[in-house]
């Protein structure tokens, strides 16, 4: 009887603990919405922005270069971390990233279509300046947000990846509500004049879109303040104070199953060998290569690889492509880590698909299957598949580093490898597109591929 009363008295505490865990998980997800949601929103709005921007088709490559140049700030943070060592704290940088992100997003909403004559041409100077500021913040977030997760248990790392994945999905949902917009209709005013492109209007403007994104980033600031200024982390027992003493494989089971890991399975676990330095470096180099192709090369070629198949292909890819990341994050719930062999296989398959997209972009304005429905479907599937495979490889690699790499700086350098890849991926294609002008764009209402 006393035992039963004891169980009943402990039951509410157990439920309260479970609720605090869920709240902590949700707060970490909301916090990580501020990592890349602003720049992802710029890419998602490109079908509308590119039609009025003076840069036209060169705008994606210009934005990619600006974001790459912003990587100078993460290098500075890396130097500061090296100098301060144990005294380094990522907390102030997170506050700066979120607050300045709110200001820059508001600036894009207000001034995205303002132009100025600079260096012999009209340029969207305020848009470019704001994107540069966001590039500094988001590139740095790859380092400091990953580093922040060392404070939490392994199972909360997935909340970070889930939040990152939603940075593309939420703007996609807003863009879907916004309407296709940018869809071109060719109108001929009379028989002597050529066809002129007329673009349909979205349900609400680019300005309102970015104000909504600003509201989401503001929620991230509130979530971070709750994590830092309340006792929610302590109540949820989410802090990683005893991580080094825990069984590593048990952490992997908790990452996958949470607190519902079977007792028999817990008792049968044996501690595996920790990750070797060679294994760690291989994961980091594959992260550099995958990030360079997926986040560096491809964004510069999005217009060249998709617009030859029509404005709808461009739009639907802008909508479906960001969904690949959250789907890969959901799959990572079922299989949080993979072996090094599968990291290599996944990287090769994903990079081969990316190479196909690059080849198609280089054939613009008349690539294979141009102006056909099946060609557009193939290209959208290719973009989606490449993003899903390489994003999952990245998540699984990050989980492996968190679980098996003994040093606490593993996730910091994991974030740094992403930024290194972006730099190496963007620069060559910026030169190809903007300097040497080797790629030819496709003008609307002109006939190609006869």
Which features characterize this protein?
19 helices; two-stranded antiparallel sheet; single chain; 450 residues; 4 strands; mainly alpha
What do these coordinates show?
The protein is mainly alpha-helical and 450 residues long. 69% of the residues lie in helices and 3% in strands. It is built from 19 helices and 4 strands. The chain has helices at residues 2-31, 37-44, 46-52, 59-69, 72-84, 91-111, 125-148, 157-178, 206-229, 232-235, 248-257, 263-268, 277-300, 302-306, 311-320, 324-334, 340-362, 373-404, 410-435; strands at residues 116-118, 121-123, 184-187, 196-199. The strands form 2 sheets. It has a two-stranded antiparallel ribbon.
Question: Gist?
Answer:
The protein has 450 residues and is mainly alpha-helical.
Helix-strand blueprint:
Blueprint: H1 2-31, H2 37-44, H3 46-52, H4 59-69, H5 72-84, H6 91-111, E1 116-118, E2 121-123, H7 125-148, H8 157-178, E3 184-187, E4 196-199, H9 206-229, H10 232-235, H11 248-257, H12 263-268, H13 277-300, H14 302-306, H15 311-320, H16 324-334, H17 340-362, H18 373-404, H19 410-435
Helix pairs in contact: 1-8, 1-9, 2-8, 4-7, 4-19, 5-7, 6-7, 6-9, 7-19, 8-16, 13-17, 13-18, 13-19, 15-18, 16-18, 17-18
């Amino acid at each position: 009887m006393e035992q039963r009363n004891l169980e009943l008295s402990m039951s509410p505490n157990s439920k309260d603990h479970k609720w605090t865990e869920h709240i902590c998980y949700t707060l970490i997800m909301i916090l990580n919405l501020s990592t890349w949601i602003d720049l992802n929103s710029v890419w998602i709005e490109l079908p509308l922005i590119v039609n009025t921007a003076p840069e036209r088709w060169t705008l994606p490559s210009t934005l990619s270069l600006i974001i790459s140049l912003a990587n100078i700030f993460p290098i500075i943070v890396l130097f500061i971390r090296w100098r301060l060592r144990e005294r380094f704290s990522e907390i102030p940088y997170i506050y700066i990233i979120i607050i300045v992100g709110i200001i820059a997003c508001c600036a894009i909403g207000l001034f995205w279509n303002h132009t100025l004559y600079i260096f012999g041409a009209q340029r969207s100077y305020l848009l470019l300046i704001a994107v540069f500021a966001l590039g500094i913040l988001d590139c740095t977030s790859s380092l400091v947000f990953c580093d922040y997760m060392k404070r939490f248990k392994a199972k909360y790392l997935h909340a970070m990846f889930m939040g990152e994945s939603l940075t593309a999905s939420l703007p996609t949902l807003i863009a879907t509500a916004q309407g296709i917009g940018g869809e071109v209709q060719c109108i001929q005013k009379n028989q002597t004049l050529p066809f002129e492109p007329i673009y349909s209007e979205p349900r609400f403007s680019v300005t309102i879109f970015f104000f909504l994104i600003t509201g989401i980033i503001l929620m991230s600031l509130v979530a971070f303040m709750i994590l830092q200024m309340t006792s929610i982390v302590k109540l949820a027992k989410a802090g990683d104070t005893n991580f080094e003493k825990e069984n590593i494989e048990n952490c992997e089971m908790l990452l996958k199953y949470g607190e519902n890991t079977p007792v028999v399975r817990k008792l049968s676990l044996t501690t595996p060998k920790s990750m070797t330095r060679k294994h760690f470096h291989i994961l980091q180099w594959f992260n550099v290569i995958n990030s360079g192709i997926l986040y560096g090369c491809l964004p510069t070629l999005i217009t060249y690889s998709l617009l030859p198949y029509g404005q709808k292909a461009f739009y639907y890819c802008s909508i479906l492509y960001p969904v690949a990341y959250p789907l890969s994050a959901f799959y990572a719930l079922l299989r949080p880590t993979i072996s090094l062999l599968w990291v290599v296989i996944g990287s090769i398959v994903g990079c081969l698909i990316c190479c196909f997209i690059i080849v198609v972009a280089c054939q613009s304005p008349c690539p294979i299957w141009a102006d056909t429905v099946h060609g557009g479907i193939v290209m959208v599937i290719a973009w989606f598949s490449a993003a899903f495979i390489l994003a999952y490889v990245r998540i699984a690699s990050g989980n492996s580093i968190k679980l098996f790499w003994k040093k606490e700086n593993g996730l910091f350098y994991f974030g740094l490898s992403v930024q290194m890849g972006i730099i190496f991926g963007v620069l060559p294609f910026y030169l190809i597109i903007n300097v040497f002008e080797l790629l030819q764009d496709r003008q609307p209402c002109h006939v190609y591929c006869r």
